[in-house]
Design a protein that fits this description.
The chain is built from 10 helices and 14 strands. By secondary structure, the protein is an alpha/beta fold. One of its GO terms (molecular function) is ATP binding.
Length: 335
């Protein structure tokens, strides 16, 4: 949309200044809310909480980071669980998500996490309610990962991770609705780690000095058929469409271009777009339809045989895992 495109230009488009009154209102309300929550006495939880979030709207790569954390912690002998807001889900909340839960009920990202992680996933707009449900239904949990929630200051946390898209960075540097930021860019200086999705560039974090910055690479893991999740070593030939209903569709289209040499059309939808059976008719002219794994959660049940999705995995440097281990050890020693 035009507003999103304007946000990610380096200078502020003149017509965006018309939104200055709304910007001032947003800053005032968000600042009041943050100070009110920070003034409260937070509950002491029995397990450490890792928050994965961002300070901008739209996709930055939080879900692959959450899955990478889950894999690593399980390999270390931990028993992680995941909590999420459940954006786009109808509830009721708090809700324990299973691989069979409908995306319409729990949201697309929590369903993806439940299918890929193999750990308890609970969604609730109030993260403390999600934590309580995790500890009730999965008392063996030793660490909780909050998928999103950087601005949910009512949730205690031991380790904060902010994910930033390398290509788009912080956009024009303004907060909503003039720019894409939920908080001032200096918020990145108070998190424990900033993960850059892609190659860090000089203009990715202008005027910001985070305590620790790590580059993340997303590695494609091979196409799978949407209808039955079976691997597809080689895509069939034919007229091809790549579609994406995520925060930054171009990232997916660029990935498709790197893993296949075929020509393909593209179609972008709004983030969290609720695909349904009517959308099948909209792609009927194509012999191969490619999509993200998040979008595939909403195509299950009605996807034709010629629809495929591409799982990706995040790769992070050893220094990041060492910093995370140290934070968990500090929590353990203090309790």
């Amino acid at each position: 949309m035009a507003l999103t495109r304007a946000w990610y230009r380096k200078s502020v488009a003149p017509w965006l200044w018309l939104l200055l009154p709304l910007h001032a209102l947003f800053v005032a309300i968000s600042t009041w809310r943050r100070k009110r929550l920070q003034a409260q006495n937070l509950p002491k939880l029995a397990v450490p909480v890792i928050v994965v979030g961002n300070i901008s709207v739209g996709g930055t790569g939080k879900t692959p980071v959450t899955l990478a954390l889950t894999r690593y912690l399980k390999a270390q002998g931990q028993r992680p669980a995941i909590i999420s807001r459940g954006y786009g889900g109808s509830g009721p909340f708090p809700l324990r998500v299973t691989p069979e839960t409908s995306a319409a009920v729990c949201g697309d990202e929590p369903l993806l996490l439940a299918r890929r992680s193999g750990v308890p996933v609970v969604v609730a707009p109030q993260r403390l309610a999600a934590v309580a449900e995790v500890l009730r239904s999965a008392p063996e949990t030793t660490v909780i990962i909050s998928d999103d929630g950087l601005q949910h200051y009512a949730l205690p946390r031991q380790f904060e991770i902010a994910v930033v898209d390398a290509a788009r960075g912080l956009g024009n540097g303004w907060r909503l609705p003039i720019g894409p930021l939920r908080e001032h860019k200096t918020r990145l200086e108070s998190v424990d780690a900033v993960i850059i999705n892609g190659k860090l560039r000089p203009d990715t974090l202008p005027g910001v000095r985070p305590p620790a910055v790590y580059e993340m690479q997303l590695q494609p893991r091979g196409w799978r058929r949407v209808s039955d999740d079976q691997p597809c070593p080689q895509l069939p030939a034919g007229k091809t469409l790549a579609l994406a209903g995520i925060g930054h569709p171009q990232r997916f289209f660029d990935t498709v271009a790197t893993v296949t040499s075929r020509a393909f059309a593209t179609r972008a939808y709004a983030d969290h777009y609720a695909f349904n059976e009517a959308d099948v008719k909209q792609v009927a002219d194509y012999e191969v339809v490619l999509m993200t794994e998040k979008d595939a959660t909403k195509w299950h049940g009605f996807a034709p045989q010629h629809c495929y999705y591409l799982p990706v995995e995040a790769e992070l440097p050893d220094a990041f895992w060492q910093q995370l281990d140290a934070a968990i050890a500090r929590f353990t020693n203090d309790t």
